[in-house]
Amino acid sequence: MAGKVVLTYFNGRGKMESIRWLLTAAEVEFDEVFVTSREQYEKLMYDGSLTFQQLPLVEIDGLKLVQTKAILNYIADKYNLHGKGLKERVMINMYSEGLMDLMEMIMMLPFCENPKLDNIKAKANERYLPVFEKALTGSTYLVGEKLSMADVLLVECTLMLEEICSNILNDFPNIKCFQCRMTKIPAINRFLQPGSKRKPQPDDNYKTMVMQVFNILDYSASALLLLLRYCPCNLERLKHALFFLFGIMYIYCTLHCYFSSQLQQPTMCDDKAELYYLNGRGRMESIRWLLTAAGVDFDEVLVEDRECYCKLIQDGKLLFGQIPMVKIDGMELVQTRAIMSYIAEKYKLDGKDIKDRAMVNMYSEGLMDLMEMIMMQPFCQDKKSKWQNIECKAKNRYLPVYEKALNGSEYLVGENLSKADVLLVECTLMLEEEFSDILKDFPNIQSFKDRMIQIPAIKRFLEPGSKRKSRPDEKYVKAVMDVFQVKTPF
Predict the structure, then answer these.
(1) Handedness of CA 421, 427, 433, 439 (dihedral sign)
(2) Are strands 298-302 and 273-277 parallel, antiparallel or unpaired?
(3) pLDDT > 70: percent of the chain
(4) In the predicted model, what is the mean pLDDT of residues 154-172?
(5) DSSP state of 165
(6) pLDDT, average across residues 232-236
(7) Which residue from 373, 278, 268 is spatially nearest to 325, judged by alpha carbons?
């Protein structure tokens, strides 16, 4: 086993702070290497230390891990902060995803020219905090009977919220009591003391350093950079990240329906999953792919208009007011990554052990980043330049990683099909719809794709008349904009 954990990032919070919190709660000591210059960042890339050219980087147990969520899951798995069973884990993951969504909005604030604190306060008060307040009614922890990753992230998040609005927990007594209990845990209490490895709120020096390392010219651009987990090597690469996140935030700002919901406790194991989404690809398509690869049949309930969407919220079906939603095994699950992790673990598509799972998750996160860029294309006005940016990123940042991983290997990780393999097939087919020859310089990926599409379940899914959705058209774009009350394309 390797020695002390090493974290490589800026000397500031950003995407690394939640990792510091989780290691602290697990009572794991760590060293830090601070990135202070563009040259240092480029050296890490050229040395091959940064998969997908991304920070943060965590060296642990002989692995070099990027992708914050993959890192957090690895730590949670290893140090028993991930629940006692599959169903507890999916609840922990859903709560954690919601908390990371909220903290990412706060992370943006120092880099925005005109910070919109009221928007964050409204989302916290109406969408996020009511969920956690209800979950903590009569409970010491969010899930189960012991500390989990979700609890640690909730403490971090509430303290961040109080930095921008000191009385924000006044109407949430359960959360306030929870926070008081958690901050008395010895390891967390030490982390909150002056001189610990907890980082202060970002100041002008931190903002300047981040902008210099990533060659960013203005604060708003770097905010988008941080939120999307992209680390562009030049300004041309930044354009798509900026454009994409603006669209995502625009959609988020249109979802104003008040709700109060909680997860249903598992009651039975259903034979068939039920998927709630629009009649199109979007964030549900990867779930369809994974269920197909697992040999799981599913029905679909189409969200066809705003009224249908609001009714789901009012009925308490959508945690955090979000779709896609999947009914499976007596649960109503949201948050795409949490849903996919549940399916992958249940149907043994997540690797044979904790290290395999970390690699599967890291590769999967990269593929989901790339597919999210493609997903936004139908809603963009300047489609040509955005496709050019996607092609550049695919060829220079993402596909080379998978080409190398498949050198002499049948699968991306281990000796069996995994979630990452399924996502790679989906992603390459999406890319080929726009760039028919994009795999010509990636023979390993081409051979891999050719093998995968011969798997009977996947082959059937690719046939006309299956539940696979077609490329988004104008009708689908209009349906999305109507449901979420988006007035104009991005």
Answers:
(1) negative
(2) parallel
(3) 87
(4) 96
(5) -
(6) 37
(7) 278
Q: What is the dihedral of CA 93, 264, 301, 284, to 10 degrees?
A: 0
DSSP per-residue string spanning 432-449: HHH-TTTTTT-HHHHHHH
Q: What pTM was estimated for this model as a whole?
A: 0.84
Cα distance between residue 4 and residue 2, in whole Å: 7
How large is the angle between the packed helices 336-346 and 419-434, nearest 10 degrees?
A: 130
How many residues are present in the chain?
A: 490
Nearest CA among 150, 133, 7, 171 for reference residue 82: 150
Q: Which two tokens stand for residue 474?
A: 């104008």
Phi-psi region of 14 (alpha: psi -120 to 50; beta: other; left: phi over 0): left
Structure tokens at 363: 């590769």
Report DSSP letters for 27-68, one per residue.
T--EEEEE--SHHHHHHHHHTT-SGGG-S-EEEETTEEE-SH
User: What's the CA gap between 439 and 444, in Å, rounded?
Assistant: 9
Residues 6+ apart with CB under 8 A from 127: 255, 259, 320, 321
Judged by DSSP in three states, 302 sits in strand
Q: Which helix (H) or strand (E) holds 299?
A: strand 298-302
Which residue reads 């726009």 in tokens? 434
Q: What is the mean pLDDT of the chain?
A: 87
The residue type at 77: D
Question: pLDDT tens-digit profile of 324-353?
Answer: 999 999 999 999 999 999 999 999 999 999
Instruction: Scan for tokens 């709700």, then name that residue.
Output: 259
Q: Which residues pair with 299 in a beta bridge?
A: 274
3-state helix, strand, coil in the chain (%, to 5): 55, 5, 35
Kindly give the interhelix angle for 219-228 and 204-213, rounded to the nearest 10 degrees.
70
| 135 touches 99 (CB < 8 A) | no
Rounded Cα distance, 322 and 334, in Å: 7
**pLDDT at residue number 230:** 36
Tell me phi and psi for residue 63, to 5 degrees: -100, 150
Summarize pLDDT for 448-484 with one digit per residue, the tens.
999 999 999 999 999 999 999 999 988 888 888 888 8
